[in-house]
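Structure ticket #2291
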Amino acid sequence: MKPHTGNCFRAVPGLDRRSEEEQLAEIIGIAQENLEKAEQYSAQLSDELHELMETYGTKDKEALAMFHNTQSQMRENQRDLLRCRKARIKPYFGRIDFRDPRLPQDESYYVGRVGISRNGSEPTVIDWRAPIASVYYENGLGPCTYTVKNEGSQTIELKRKRTYEIADDRLIDFFDSDVVANDELLTKYLARNKSAVLGEIIATIQKEQNAVIRRSPRMNLIVQGVAGSGKTTVAMHRISYILYNYEEDFRPEDFYIIGSNRILLNYITSVLPDLDVYGVSQMTMEQLFIRLLYEDWDPALYSVRHPGRTKNAGPEDAMRIKGSYDWFHDLERFCQDYEEASIPVERVMMDNGVLLIKESTIRSCLKNNPLVSMQGKINMLNRILLTRLENETAGRQMTYPPDVKKELLRKYRRHFGRDVWKGSIFEVYQDFLAAQAEKGKAVPPVENAFDLYDLAALAFLYKRIKETDGIREASHVIIDEAQDFGMTAYGSLAYCLRGCTYTIMGDVSQNIHYGYGLNDWEDLKKLLLKGLPGGFGVLKKSYRNTVEISGFAAGILRHGSFPVYPADPIRRHGAPVRTVSCRDEAEMLRETAGSVRKWQADGRETIAVICRDEEEADAVKKHLGSELLLADTDPATASFTEGIMVLPVEYTKGLEFDAVLLYHPSRENYPAEDAYVKLLYVAATRALHELTIVHMGDLTDLIGKPAPEREMERLPEPRKEDVPAHTDSSIHTGGTSAPGTPNRAVRYETGCASDAAGRKASSAASAPSSQAPAAIYKPRPAGTPADLPVNSSPYPFGASPDSRILQRKDAAGTADLAIRDIKRTRQCFDLISRSGILRLTPITDAVIRVQFLSGGSPDPSPGWWDRRPEGPVAWTARAGKSLVELSTDKVRIQADRRSGALRFFDRDGRRLLSERTALPRQIESGDTIRTWEYFDWQKNEKLAAKGILAEDLERMNHKARYISFGGKRLRMPLLVSEYGYGIGIASEGTVLCCNIPMYGTYLYTEGKRQIDYYFLCGENYSEILGLYQELQKIR
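Resolution: structure written out below.
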């Protein structure tokens, strides 16, 4: 894929039928050309592959590399072919005409499943995932906005939104509308069989669904969607959207899809390639927790237990207990007690009376590192202790002989514990269960067969007690049918996969595990959203069922005493729900077979016979299988496809069928209790067009008796300001444009073009953080945001630098940074070298300003980012033989006297960041003053640069990018580390971050004759963001 930039305009085509047919013929021609090119390239690659196999031997390393490279090209070409074939079959489904106020004329684009352009030029058809395509889905005519990643919002005037029906290269119909698909067209689509409906989904995505799909993947999202609202489909389109627009941040392997059963997951896997998604991992929640146990899980010794899948599985009381949030909190407290019993907290004092580490320091380390495992804290405390010992024996006041030093090292190196935990997670879990039993919370012994919540607890114990070197897992987790999992699973997941974000899709009215699943979202919202606005949304429009089926299901739901999110069904009528009473089981089976045959004769492609449990489903399959050809329903191998499936109700979650027969919903199978209300509601809402119930005269009261005539209690919906909105989209740029000129961005693949068709947008204010600190700085005179100057850099945020600027500077003889004098004032701490003055200024206890002033002048020139403390800040400073140190309550900074290099620590002594000892910093004079600040970022440290919006985080691992905002309103560039710190660069011009070892790891600026940045110490991104936003405030 390569970017292409141009300044041509897509003129507005004619509006009458003849003009539209001419446009269709032209675009079909382009799509056909692209398809033929892709097919020719495919044949060429195939010939090359064959030639390599014929010509070279298997031991030829160069030929082997060429062979693998060609194979990779072949795989990508197969995907290109699929895109081109989709474009050829149905090139587009929509059109937008609009006026960009910066341009002299109206423009127009068609919208399709993939983008289409000739030879990579300005696209004729834009991909539905492109930024500007969002206005097709969610805006009415008139002024509207779309958002571009790292650039903010762009305003245009939408003048026309047109929808098309195209089939067999013919324009069937078209119409103009304020909505994507009006009720008439939507009803026409939904009346078709499931396979046909799936093909039209992209064309009929509704506004509220589009908001979920385009929500930033860097923020957690919980979506409550009623039955038939398209939750699973929206989740799949969301993955496709993210991979298209965030290709530098998310790869397919960064996603985990979690589902409640394998049949649902197999269905999702089969559909994703049609959405241009390949290689995404999908698993059940049980499989995920097994994965998180790594080497501790031995499948030869342990197995997974699935309680509750048959009538004879026994009571689910243990699952109710273990799935609850109270149980998880008990587990957290148990781990805390276990840690306190394992790590000594008494002060450590040498025999000669020298205090190495205070008890308060030890307790602070344990308390303030909640995300570090017990073993990690042991190793951290050992490192702190050995650092203190090293400083002591280095000799300021006392000299220690080598043999004494060796003996001291032997004595203290494992004072807090060994480097590796040698215990058994499974034994610790048994201890936890025993402790719970003593509190009156006994559950049956687990032995070597574990249910979901046993596995969740084991994974938590592994991460909380044992792990020291975390293995990179997913960056984004999508959980479908999320209401079926209890809070123990989510508590463990949030702890174990803390570095990722989540998309949670579910419906609490469909919780089939009533005792321990989710009956509301409140606990999960507190856990994952933490009060952030826009993270919870409701999809209340139901598109699946006919009015008749929807009314029947609503009658079942009214038997429940629980609050609900009410569904708003689309008005589509169909056949009435049939209820058939049979004399005996044999007649039930005959009626079932007859109904299925009739549906097949009517052209129904997907048919389900839904039974109460696996035992009943097996019996029905055995009888029907002798008369009808049944589809595979083995969870390990079944894929959702055309045919007849006989399934227990649990396996139908997330699926839908053209016709459903509900088999034997008796009073015994479905008692009139809340838990069974939800279970039966799930079964009834699987049907798209036809629903039949067969029974033996013992019909459950949930169907047989009228529902109570009462208004059901409603669960709280999000406030209008909290509804999810898509907050950023992507733009693929290939250069910069003159001021005021929109920068066209086109992304294309070999043969079949697709696009990002975005425009650079005006600035948008940063999203609020969850917790901004109180005002802590003195305001400096300034006006309104209009007073903010524009960043003078020619480079936009996220642009890639020329490799020539990345080459290492020759450091020979350029600076003498050894500290030769020290000067302390009430406000700052100056460390003076021959090359300049290194000034450390505490702004708060968590924010330290670092300036290096070249030459002898102690007074820097004033700048936009000058910040002063509002009041006195408590800090101390001391100087030793080899180190100089400044400390606040939250930060400790050490400066090496010999090199002048800084090291930053948190209050517990954990090293956060270090300058490079060989050459910490450098300033070069000339026509342009350039500075380099060299940091020793750790190899696996996750770094990100903040864009315009709070959630726009550009990953900086093994990258070089401009992180200043050239041509935009002045903002302080911010670099954030997962280790709990940020660097706010006080520059008004160009700032570049290079994190490529071959070039060096540094921050580069152009402008003033000083290095100037703010070091921000916070436990997480929200806290760092709050400190940064205080620095950003207008003074």
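Closing remark: The first helix runs from residue 17 to 55.
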